[in-house]
Amino acid sequence: MATASKPSLSRVDAVDESETRILDAALIQFQKVGVKKTTIEDVARQAGVDRVTVYRRMGSRDDLVQAVINREVAAVLTELAEIPERHDDISDLVADVFVTVVTRWRTNPLVERMLAVEPERVVMKLTVDGATTFAMCVSATAAALDAAVQRGLLEPSPDLMTRAEIVCRIVHSMVLAPEGVAHLSTDADLSTFARTYLTPIITGPPGTAR
Q1: What residues have CB less than 8 Å from 205, skipping those under 6 apart?
Q2: pTM beyond 0.85, yes or no
């Protein structure tokens, strides 16, 4: 009996490699000259593909920017997924997650470049156009909290997702407006802040939100 053909592994790998090359090329261009001065043609040339391939695989330049940002965020979230296994205390876990997120944001070359030359684009990508990215962060934070519950570091609660969202909103606001009364310039400052203000949100009495 005839069966539907499936794409060969080599073809799938080629597709994935093509997209990776495009995203890598876009990241290089964005870091070198910023988003506004980068064209699809620049990215195609850097990736060694034609512009039609970039459009077909990634869409518009704005779609490409979002894809690059999502990949950068996903890399950090993958790192966060490994943190719960390193700690036996919930305060240590929360502090490690917070310090990791903020320092990765502060030291990311793409973010640094965009903040220097196109801060308004960063704001748009993290607010009006940032629903997908924010949802990724909330889900990853909730997963880290659930891992802490499974390891006995945190009491089960019906509103862990809500707590994760509250913490993410705090981090989100600090990313958008880093200057304030709290001066968090060092890892020690960030750790103390997390232990003092974020851990109680995570470990407080169970709520009813689901």
Answers
A1: none
A2: no
